[in-house]
Write a structure and sequence with these properties.
The protein is α/β, with parallel strands linked by helices. Helices cover 30% and strands 15% of the residues. It is built from 12 helices and 15 strands. The strands form 2 sheets. A 9-stranded mixed sheet has the order 7-12-11-10-9-8-13-14-15. Helix 3 links the parallel strand 5 and strand 6. The chain is globular and about 60 Å long. The two termini are 35 Å apart. The mean pLDDT is 93.
Amino acid sequence: MDNSKNDPIIIFGAGFYGQRALEQYGSENVDFFIDNDSNKIGTFCNGKEIITAERAAELYKGGDYRIIIASLYAESMAQQLEELGVTEYSFFINPVHGFYETDELIVNPYLLTKEAESEAEWSESKKLEFSRNEVNKAVERAYKNQPLFSHIEIETINRCNGICSFCPVNRNEDPREKAVMSEELFKNIVGQLEELQYSGRFTTFSNNEPLLDDRIIEFNKYAREHLPKARIHMYTNGTLFSLEKFKELVQYLDEFIIDNYNQELSLIKPCQEIKAYIESHPELELNKKVTIVLRKPQEILTSRGGNAPNRKDLREYPDDRCLLPFRQMIVRPTGQVSLCCNDALGKWTLGDLTKETITDVWYGTKFTKVREALYKGRQYCGNCKYCDTFIMG
């Protein structure tokens, strides 16, 4: 069967990445979206009918269509297509993808996903139900073959200047003793990754505001020089930016996400200046790596293992699995390795990079026991049973 590049396209996934794929391939070249939500079948997304995977497979077998998977849950979607007899398909994003696969400079996520108005609405959403199923499937595959992590966060200073209501370490809530990573430790970690020829995601950010560390540009420059295969990204709230600091830092990053926190979704002054600079220099194509995301500092998000200050209605997910300890390593300024990105307070320590190597920690007894526990279910791993974060790492 010859599903050529000139054939019309069916995009599997009608969410954020599906709509980004529609932009990239052109609306005139796309005929349908596929979605597994039965409530969406027969409705339209950006003028394209949403159909079932079964119908898409029939169209594909007729030799008239090619299918492109555009979702963070691409692995299970590929498996679903193969079970329906679709042997050829392509991916819009690769496994070590960007967080915002778009050339749009300003992104308003609330236009794509409605903000939850209550904790119950968050907990009972279709999106959460779907994510739970996909994570459980992904853990089944990851448990059988544990490669090196594909995402590492190095928190060089454990402080944030934000006041987000959903964050357990916002400046009004943070109970942690201040810690700053030594330059020696940072370079040692990067050196180990260099020896491993690391090609996953790398960032000098975790549960903090990275620009509070005056060395952050120097650190990212060093990482860029020594980790040429890595995808280096950063999240920041942007409040501490000068335009000169932005221009210097952005050259070392593959992706730069600025969370513009304002309850009315207005651009803060540093973001206004960055936006003006990027738009006045289109030849630099900075919109391909910079995304300013409009965010609300007061909203309902995940419970973060029961640690989110604004979450009181904690549901239990005792039999659900978690993929994070199979995909990510979170390093605190002290060199201690935490359970996952949701362990902002560092309650779980799985290793210490001032005393152990990266591989010794990753394949060590503590990480192994955590993976075994979370393969069986979140009830076997402390407060993980209260965590409603279901992401692919």
